[in-house]
User: What shape does this take?
Amino acid sequence: MSPFLVTLMTPLIGGFVLAAVEDARIAARINVASGVITFGASLALAVSVAQVGSLNAVGGWFFLDAFNVFLVALTAFVGMTTAIFSGPYMRHEIAHGRMDARRMRLYHSMFQLFQFGMLLGFTANNIGVLWVSLELATLATVLLVSLYRTPASIAAAWKYFVLCGMGIALALFGTVMIFFTSSSVLGHGNEALTWTLLMDESSKLDPVVMMIAFCFLMVGYGTKVGLAPMHAWLPDAHGEGPTPVSAVLSGLLLNLALYALVRLKMLVDGATGTDTAGHIMMSFGLLSLFVAAFSLHKQRDIKRLFSFSSIEHMGLMTFAFGIGTHLASFAALLHMTVHSLVKSGIFFTVGHAAQAMGTQKMTGIRGLIRHHPGIGWGLLVGTVAIAGFPPFGVFTSEFLLLTATLDAHAWTCILLLLGLLVAMTGLLRFVQPMAFGEPASDAVAVRVNMLPVYVHLLLALMLGLFIPGFLAGWYDQAAALIVSAPLEGL
Amino acid sequence: MNTALIQQIIDGLAALMLLVSFSLLAQHRMLSVLHWFAVQGWLLAITSAFVAYGTGHHELYVSAAMTLLLKGLLLPWLLWRVIKRLHVHREVEPLVNLTLTMLIALGITLFSFHIIQPIEKISQLLTRDSMAIATACVLLGMLMMITRRKAITQVVGFLAVENALFFAAIGSTNGMPLVVEIGIAFDVLIAALIFGLFFFQIRTTFDSLEVDAMHASLVEREEEE
Assistant: This one.
């Protein structure tokens, strides 16, 4: 079997197998094994794509290029480390009566199906299938958010379901509109939704229809990216679900939605030949940055704090993709990678911290470094990394983004810097007492597995200090794809 | 039948679709909301069948049959069962009174016709007039979601939006490719099942199906911190 099929099918099979496994311990091992196989296969896939440039699979239904194959590898990697983290974490939750065996089955099965939906979305060569898979990934996570069955978690899951369902419905409307114009160019069939064919013909699509379609897609997929003002579901869903779920929601699902948006923007740019779509994205991005940066200061719950930080970073990436120059796209791709790594790492740490202190309230978490040096340092270093301090990768990508902004729209630099500064202070003011501070007396010892966190942070550090040649080449190629697309159309 | 006649029939069905969307908004009783929702499903199926006949795209007969089963029969029946099982109060309890809702709905319809105008000029398709109506129906479904208090009426609004999207696909593009359509139908089915599951979770946790109660729990959760 080709590495592509292994990458895609392992989580699907894993999902069905795990639905039948009763023993939570064995299920956790299968979960990890499936993650490792998926990641291994995705690496093999990445190598083969790097050799040939781009790849069509299964009769043209799937395709891989530099842009999506690195996201596939990233998704598989974070999926794997989350599975490793989730084993001991969920055992602790069972021991404390927040979970039972039946719900563990649901959890493991849905975790793998979510992974399948993600990988399907990244590799699908059909914007209709892309929509279906994004919906699939959403549906798989809805039940995970309400997994603890507390009133707040059910309410959060309902909000997530209704708001994202609505958002995704609008995105479907946008997709229908694209089909409406593309079917007159490419014929009434699958070809008219096939990405690679659409891209070649994008200049023939009707600009007016494509622009109206983009408005629907922007609001629709933008809801899933968590852009303000459609972000209301995000802090609740990330705050109430189990921590491994928060980690993959923040680190992965938002990426898929943004990926969909960027792909469709490439099409719209090709049709209209103007920057309007990019400007819309930039405004949404800036607004999200500001809303999130100021909301950070009002938070009381540690998981909600970091989910607002996710909104901030998704805003930055949307802004960068909106600028649309080569450098900005490069920065956005790098930022996507480091954000996924650091944010999921932080969520792992936060999960352990909440277990050790028995609360998610930030006022209840104090003196982590004294009590649990591993968790404390992890949280501190993770926060420093995500707040954009050198030498971590977030600094590099934000610096590149600012440079790109200076070239394109210099005056927005001031706004960006202000937003970043407010967000940074918001994070540090809460994390400082949690890391140092007077330790709380009732902290319990928990078995922690900090390895995934350290691996994530080390990778982010490495990306900040030097980006290996092959990876830089890769980003470069992907950025070139994103940028050159509209030029071909013009 | 000649093309002009089919065109007229489809336009007529589109008008009926809009009428049903208004009726959905105007109902006082839960059961009649479900009736109109079922009627919407049937209308969709009939429209697909006509478009299939008129254009000769035979795969549309498949989606007509799927629509009839899923949206005309299965979903209304499932929702009806939920209402029976959970003894939901029979009144709809809108947040905004119905007269005002109707006026807003009227404004939304005018707005939809306005934004779709540039598209209608360029389309060569048999069914080009229906795009504006589909847009109006999408927005009316959303209006229904935001003006109702109960989780279950929100879900009907959600499904009405899905119906309108389907109508947009059938009406203005002669149907999406079958693979995509099956994918969408599958997603809607799963979504409906999850909604059903949620009703029971919400009911056991909050003792009512009011959205306000859920919202309050989130606010409380945030404030206790």
